[in-house]
User: What shape does this take?
Amino acid sequence: MNRVYVIAANTFREAVRDRVLNSILFFAVILLCLSLTLKEMSIGDTAKVVRGVALGGTSLLAAVIAIFLGVGLVYKEIEKKTIYTLASKPLPRWHLLLGKYLGLWITLAAEVGLLTLFYTLVLATQQGLPSLGVYLAMVLLMAELSLLTAWATLFSTFATPMTASAFSVCIYLIGHFADDLRLFAERAEDGPFKTMLSILYRVVPNLESFNIRDEAVHGVPVPWSEVLWSGAYGLGYSAAVLAVAMIIFERRDFK
Amino acid sequence: MPLAIRTEKLGKTYLSGFLRRPFVALSELTMEVRVGSSFGLVGPNGAGKTTAIKTLMGLQRPSAGQAWIHGVAITDHESRRRVGFMPERPYFYEYLTAWEFLDFYARLTEVEAAARRPRIEALLERVNLDRFRHVPLGKFSKGMLQRAGIAQALVNDPDLVVLDEPMSGLDPLGRVLVRDIIQEERRKGKTVFFSSHILGDVEAICDEVAIVVAGTLRGQGTVRELIGQTADEVDCTFVIAGDPPGRVMRRDGDRVTVRVPSGNVDATIDAVRAAGGHVLEVHPNARTLEEVLLDEVERAKLVNEKRLGVLA
Ligand SMILES: Nc1ncnc2c1ncn2[C@@H]1O[C@H](COP(=O)(O)OP(=O)(O)OP(=O)(O)O)[C@@H](O)[C@H]1O
Ligand SMILES: [Mg+2]
Assistant: This one.
């Protein structure tokens, strides 16, 4: 298991040295600071709107990075043939995949952490320290991201980055409209279409269950049980998706 | 006799293209590599050498047959515990420096923490990359990458080193370096299994050679066995006015080359010198490995005209 960590650390190092990623992050920090200083020009409740935009922006950006890195996670190793030296080492292939996945997760956690830090700093100078709810929202964002990266990783074990990105974006969008999807499924007429909708509703994760950003912005308390339940849901679901990815990865020929 | 590698009717069929047409890249490969030998896998482009090596290294599943490394089936990743491997045309993480790169693989192969630093230092020096330890691999030249790849294959001090074309992309100095490394490993009692196109090197350093043509094993044995045992005939070249005794092979002015049975060499030389001639060159009429390989390719062509068309 020590070697899973070695691979995770290397994946993290790769991301840290990725120029594209660094510039995305740089711009994110700038945008975050700018959006929060808008408060200067706003009156009353607009301060909340601004905070909401900053939080929403962070989560959207983190999702973009998660998909961007996730779809290349396995594909890039195969494409660049670095997999030859990696997969010939005496360790089970699923350790490789788990290591890469964890490395990606650590990368995202570091990025979300960094953005949260800037959020805190800027907010502290402008509006006062953010509430605990904001940090809980970030923790749940990480749960959402683990799910999203699990899907992206799964796609990257068999599809090109283009296809895998398209699939992942679909998961992301459907996942955020899951409640509407259910309503839609319930109202649809009986038939194959309804069956398809309800299967889709059950398979695709409900990403809105990780979203407590509005509550955080408006200072509405979220019960701990809900946070814990969402966290557990994210963890269990990610593990299941990852298990499928491992099975596919185990059987692959590296040509 | 302990075996480092044993394969039994190992085969690999690729399904290629949209129609998933099967292509037999390797068929019924049965061979044995003794522990402590240096074993060369030779064959023309597309013969199936890389296919065989990738299958042994667990990068793809065999479609037929079975193979064992140090007695453990290759389908078990444990079979590669005491193995080092360098793939053909090595591709490595460009963002890692030479040092980080070796350290990463040392950790992955569970080299103990205390042994890592001295091992990596020694290897960097061995492959002449110690000056470049902090340069990212993305800035390495082809030959430097190749040498880094060899260091990587040796980082866990493996009992079996598998190298796919270790000499390619290297200048003469680099090739001598790799030859020396292979022979050094063998002297330490390690097994070296490698593929190569540079038959002169193979001839010089391999205990044993397998010839693969069009996915099929066409011969295996010591270099001596493959190039046609010991030569029974010797070619002698003299500077002489008349005709020396023996079968004349070539004549260029007063230079004559004759082929004589190896028992008659002394008598022939005596006769030439008695007649006032000079001895220029005496060497056994043995085929080179290259000639043997070309013959095998010809033979395979006759046996299977069509398959070779695909290979060309
Ligand atoms: N992934 C693949 N899909 C389909 N065919 C393949 C694949 N990989 C290799 N082949 C075919 O298998 C045959 C053997 O290829 P291989 O790479 O093993 O040859 P090789 O002996 O290593 O040649 P070289 O000396 O050029 O490296 C070739 O005809 C090649 O076209
Ligand atoms: Mg090859």
Summary: Chain A has a mean pLDDT of 85. The two ends of chain A are 27 Å apart (CA to CA). The pocket of magnesium ion (ligand 2) is lined by residues B 49-50, 88, 164 (CB under 6 Å). The first helix of chain A runs from residue 2 to 16.
